[in-house]
Design a protein that fits this description.
By secondary structure, this protein is mainly α. Helix content is 79%, strand content 0%. It contains eleven helices and no strands. Helix 3 runs parallel beside helix 10, helix 4 runs antiparallel to helix 8 and helix 4 packs parallel to helix 10. The longest helix is centred in the C-terminal third of the chain and has 33 residues. The radius of gyration is 19 Å and the shape is globular. The chain starts with a helix and ends in a 5-residue tail after the last helix.
Length: 233
């Protein structure tokens, strides 16, 4: 555990020069103007609660695979814990790549003249379409294919998430974005606390197929919330 903590701390430090280099090269994008006001004022903005609901929905798949991948490989693919470990590390790698890809793609859209919120939403919609592949997970017959399907699922979730967490900055400006984003983070913690025991019960009774379908559809539901509330238009 101590070794893992030291490794993560070193990786975090290595990220700082990469971030500085990227920030210097990035073009300044005109987002929402800086607005005065308090957190209470922001709580009255319906866009914030649309972002909260959409974030909670979009993170269902991440909650599923971050907690149940190893158990799925053991129970459904009949691997030992040691064998499952050979595959369980792959989805987190794809999650990291998905985050980078989602940020890069929205940046490209903005560079082509798309409004920031519209650019984020386009990537979220594409990620939602890709997330439909999650329904394939229960139908895989080998651990390798299962790991590939799960990896595609978390890739899509991460591409969605990195844009979802940026939307408050575009909508509310940097002056109030931190407060809004902290509420989004809290919404993920809350939804995970609520659905995790439910997931366990569903798995015990019906297996993983219902949860795979749920995780495939919730990003599209999140996009519906964003579009239907006019939060990205």
């Amino acid at each position: 555990m101590a070794h893992e903590f030291r490794r993560h701390r070193v990786l975090g430090l290595l990220w700082i020069p990469v971030w500085n280099w990227t920030a210097r090269r990035a073009h300044t994008v005109a987002g929402a103007p800086i607005e005065s006001g308090t957190g209470v004022d922001l709580l009255r903005d319906r866009r914030l609660w649309a972002f909260v609901a959409a974030n909670a929905l979009s993170m269902v798949g991440y909650s599923l695979w971050s907690n149940w991948t190893t158990l799925y490989l053991v129970e459904a693919q009949h691997l030992t814990l040691v064998q499952a470990a050979w595959y369980a590390w792959i989805p987190p790698v794809f999650a990291a790549v998905g985050g980078l890809a989602g940020g890069w793609l929205s940046f490209r859209f903005v560079g082509r003249g798309v409004a920031p919120l519209g650019a984020r939403f386009r990537v979220c919609l594409l990620a939602s379409a890709l997330s439909l592949a999650t329904t394939l997970v229960p139908f895989t017959h080998t651990a390798a294919w299962a790991s590939a399907a799960i990896s595609l699922s978390v890739f899509a979730v991460s591409a969605f998430s990195v844009n979802m967490y940026t939307m408050p900055l575009d909508a509310f400006g940097g002056h109030r974005a931190a407060f809004a984003i902290s509420i989004l983070v809290g919404s993920y913690g809350l939804i995970q606390a609520i659905i995790s025991p439910i997931f366990g019960r569903v798995i015990d009774l019906y297996g993983y197929a219902p949860l795979a379908v749920l995780a495939a559809l919730t990003p599209l539901a999140a996009c519906s919330v964003l579009w239907g509330t006019r939060s990205v238009r």
